[in-house]
Amino acid sequence: MISAEPPGSSSGPPTPSADAAPAPEAGTPFARLGGEPGVRALVDRFYDLMDLEPAYAGIRRLHPSTLEGSRDKLFWFLCGWLGGPSHYVDRFGHPRLRARHLPYAIGIAERDQWMACMIEALREEAVEASLAKRLAEALFGTADWMRNR
Questions:
Q1: Which residues touch 146 (CB under 8 Å, ≥6 apart)?
Q2: Nearby residues of 128 by Cβ (< 8 Å), 6 or more positions away
Q3: Does the pLDDT at position 118 exceed 60?
Q4: Which of 33, 44, 84, 130 is most buried, by CB atoms within 10 Å?
Q5: Distance from C-alpha of 35 to C-alpha of 14, rounded to nearest angstrom
């Protein structure tokens, strides 16, 4: 996780009122992506590409006929994984990613398609290069761990 500046090192933003939701730390990947709207845009572009591009047909076949539930689950998961609200854990508990993906045949080709689709979404959403590289590296480790064949 990217560290925010230590308290007191800059004047920082004004303190939110008591009834306002706390803002994410400025240095988190979640904040750097633009918070929930940025994460939602990334997830939506990812699934749009999966739906539209023949290069991602292999991973598209692993998903339900409609992608709304998949979009929401990835959005909820990424929000927390990136340092924002823990929407996924609040709804479903621990992600148990490998266990949840075991019913699907995931090999090197599927991993690589998933990664190519996400890297393209990061590029098209104009995520800053250093953050996109870091996210792709971290996501690759997770995607590789999902392989079960």
A1: 97, 98, 101, 106, 111
A2: 32
A3: yes
A4: 33
A5: 18
Query: Distance between alpha carbon 48 and the CA centroid of its chain, in Å?
Result: 15
Q: What is the pLDDT of residue 15?
A: 39
- CB pairs under 8 A, 24+ apart, for 136-141? 139/115, 140/115
Question: Who contacts 103 (Cβ-Cβ below 8 Å, separation ≥6)?
Answer: none
For residue 2, pLDDT beyond 90 = no
The superfamily (CATH) of domain 34-145 is Globins (1.10.490.10)
Which of 27, 24, 22, 21 is CA-nearest to residue 9? 27
Domain extents in the chain? 34-145
Report pLDDT for 19: 46
With tokens 């890297």, the residue in question is 119
Pair of tokens at residue 60: 């598209």
pLDDT, average across residues 40-68: 97
List the structure tokens of 130: 């250093």
Residue with tokens 């994984």: 81
